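[step 3/7] fold_predict: job queued, chain A
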Amino acid sequence: MSRFVLHDLPLAGLKLVERQRVGDARGYLSRLFCAEELAAAGWRKAVVQINHTCTMRRGIVRGMHFQRPPYAEMKLVSCLRGEVWDVAVDLRAGSPTFLQWHAERLSAKNGRALLIPEGFAHGFQAVSDEAELLYLHSAPYAPQVEGGLHPLDPRLSIAWPLPLEALSERDAGHALLDEAFEGVSL
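[step 4/7] structure written:
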């Protein structure tokens, strides 16, 4: 029995993962990751890093972060508490959906996850107080190849659902994209 239903999203390689919960009067069990089942969605590498974040107030945005090769990474992002509006931006050089974004609501209640392929930037906005996320990464954090997009970059025109409450100094410091930006070559 498969524990996941995988949905293709408008940006090639980006997947919505719906977990099938098995439960009874005591509660439920939900499989967070299965390499064998998620290989069908493109996850073919080991999980090499797992991160947990807690964002305390609704409206706060974290991101938009990415890593360049040789540390380009896939991410499987799940919400363990609260709710977020999770955003992925296609940065793949030559992609027909270059610089297009897609967002999904992830929550503890809906049990959904976003599978984000290499060559995408990722970020989210908390739409509830105390939103907790769990990230599985296919590559270790490598500050020498990290990149970021400004969440309010007019070239992206991300339609955040709430006014931005706060940006970290790092995220606010990302330069706006110029016409010279050609994307990430994988």
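[step 5/7] annotate
The domain at 4-19+32-172 is CATH 2.60.120.10 (Jelly Rolls).
The chain is about 5% helix and 40% strand.
exit 0
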